């Protein structure tokens, strides 16, 4: 009986899994494109560094903190007009990925900043004294030295996005969360609820293992 229910659920589960991966993938891509440079900017404009700028540091930091302080479910609803304008719909995985991306940018930016702070400032000071340009310092010192932390941070961001995507399913965002709500909660189907929980646990464990493996592989320390 239990196995039969799972077999019947497979088509919907497969679609929900693909929708979740789509949402998380878009969120991670946007986090890399926008969150990574934002995090680097937060670091290099800090006091005592080669691009010190109190105004830029304060403005970017305030934006990051403002977005991070909003609970995701509220952010999801708040961004509905923007989502409608951007993708012409407020339901489905593509619409949910808008809010996921907005949440991922400041989340990953802070992780990037934290990873960069672990770099020995003496190395950066030596590069500045040698006349290296800011871009050269960022490209040849900050990125290579912070690479393990950046990968670990991306892993943490991906896992957080999986949780957010499940939450987005409660408002028609699609994915595994939507499947759990529609079948597991509204129809009181324990099999669906149990299966979706197991899938999420396995997915998170796989991403964590892969992220840890890559982070260790690129760590030259």
Report on the structure:
- The protein is mainly alpha-helical and 221 residues long.
- It has one domain (2-218): MetI-like (MetI-like fold).
- It has nine helices and no strands.
- The mean pLDDT is 86.
- InterPro entries: AA_ABC_Transporter_Permease, MetI-like, MetI-like_sf.
- Keywords: Cell membrane, Membrane, Transmembrane, Transmembrane helix, Transport.
List the helices and strands and how they pair.
Blueprint: H1 2-44, H2 54-68, H3 72-78, H4 80-87, H5 93-117, H6 121-129, H7 134-168, H8 175-185, H9 190-218
Helix pairs in contact: 1-2, 1-5, 1-7, 1-8, 1-9, 2-5, 4-5, 5-7, 6-7, 7-8, 7-9, 8-9
Would you identify the CATH architecture? Orthogonal Bundle
**Mind telling me the CATH superfamily name?**
MetI-like
Globally, the shape reads elongated
Low-confidence stretches: none
* Amino-to-carboxy terminus distance: 53 Å
Order of helices and strands: HHHHHHHHH
- By CATH reckoning, the class would read Mainly Alpha
Q: What is the helix content?
A: over 70%
Number of helices: 9
Look at the structure and give the mean pLDDT: 86
Strand content: under 5%
Transmembrane segments: 20-43, 55-80, 92-111, 149-171, 191-211
Main location: membrane
Keywords: Cell membrane, Membrane, Transmembrane, Transmembrane helix, Transport
Domain ABC transmembrane type-1: 17-211
């Amino acid at each position: 009986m239990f196995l039969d229910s799972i077999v019947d659920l497979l088509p919907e589960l497969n679609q929900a899994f693909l929708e979740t991966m789509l949402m998380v993938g878009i969120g991670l891509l946007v986090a890399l494109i926008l969150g990574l440079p934002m995090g680097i900017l937060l670091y290099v404009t800090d006091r005592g560094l080669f691009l010190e700028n109190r105004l830029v540091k304060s403005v970017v930091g305030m934006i990051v903190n403002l977005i991070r302080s909003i609970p995701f479910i509220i952010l999801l609803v708040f961004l509905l007009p923007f989502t409608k304008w951007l993708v012409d719909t407020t339901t489905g995985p593509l619409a949910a990925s808008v809010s996921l991306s907005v949440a991922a940018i400041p989340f990953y930016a802070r992780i990037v900043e934290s990873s960069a702070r672990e770099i020995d400032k003496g190395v950066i000071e030596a590069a500045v004294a040698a006349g290296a340009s800011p871009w050269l310092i960022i490209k040849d010192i900050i990125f290579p030295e912070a690479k393990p932390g950046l990968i670990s941070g991306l892993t943490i961001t991906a896992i957080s996005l999986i949780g957010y995507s499940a939450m987005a399913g409660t408002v028609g965002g699609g994915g595994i969360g939507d499947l759990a709500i529609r079948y597991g909660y509204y129809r009181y189907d324990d099999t669906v609820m149990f299966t979706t929980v197991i899938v999420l646990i396995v997915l998170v464990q796989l991403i964590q293992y892969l992220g840890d493996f890559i982070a260790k592989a690129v760590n030259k320390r």
